[in-house]
Amino acid sequence: MNILIIKLRHLGDVLVTTPAISALKQAYPEAAVTMVVNAGTEAMVTENPDIAEVIPWERAGNRSNGKGPSKNLNLIKRLRGKKLDLSIDFTIGDRGAFLSFLAGAPQRLGFGPKKSKQWWWRLAYTRTVPQPKPNRHVVESHLDAVRLLGLSPGKPGLKFFWREADQERVKAFLREKGWGDQPPYLVVHPTSRWMFKTWKVEGYARVIDAVQEDLGIPVVLTGGPEEKEKTVIQEILSQCRTRPLDLSDRLSLKELGALIAGARGFLGVDSAPMHLAAAVGTPAAVLFGPSGDIMWGPWGRGHRVIKKKWPCRPCGRDGCDGTKKSRCLEEIEPGEVLTVLSGLLTAGRLVRP
Questions:
Q1: pTM strictly above 0.85
Q2: Is residue 248 within 8 Å of residue 230, measured between CB atoms?
């Protein structure tokens, strides 16, 4: 069997498809799975033994840079040449539906349309499942497509893999700090590409100081390459009394996953690194504000969600009243976070799925 999986979204969205892929491989162990993802997100699924080939798809641009219609046509020819038996599109969008239809598998599964202008999705897919709902985890919605095949997938975990070279580079960073290869550290990833999901700077600084001074656990601070994320990291460091190891913008995605895998715990917000923690079996404490923790929280047991039980959340908005700041995050106090973290860090590591 030749299976195509399509997920043309962001980093975390790609990673949360891996339980469905695991379920397919368990049911069809000889199947060759090809996955098409947005260029720049492929590191979330490369090295995964369940996937035979990962194809990054770049958005069409001008013809001079090789990203025009001809490149899309080459991709379609490449997929049709695989003589696919089954395709599953987890994207929820026109590009995924378009690619699913043209790839030519006789069985084409995807999410059904919600808007009248998306009527043609019913032609792109041979069978559909309802789109994810906020009162149910997105992984379960992905598994619905597997159930549509008559399978009982259970609750597979997220999977993430890296190379030995990635692990060695992480160890080198820790040794630079004067630590052993894998001390019992806490990884703090305070930002998201969507800044309205980010907690207050002074809160992170107080928590980092308390973890290092009172709990005696070293902290590794990580962050993304965007300038707005770098600014937040520098503000946190400027307010800390203690000095965490700052690895922000120094790690590849593979290295970040390897770092989190060696940690005693993870603290962050609704972001791709939160899903990495779930994938590698590191217990996570995650602050949620306007985004939905039921739908997007860390998948699996042993993780903790920190949130305000307000009737207005999750609202899905980019801050309150156009401010780009979310009160349901801003008003979480450091003491609340420390109480959750203390329990998390004394509970022991999870078993990696």
A1: yes
A2: yes
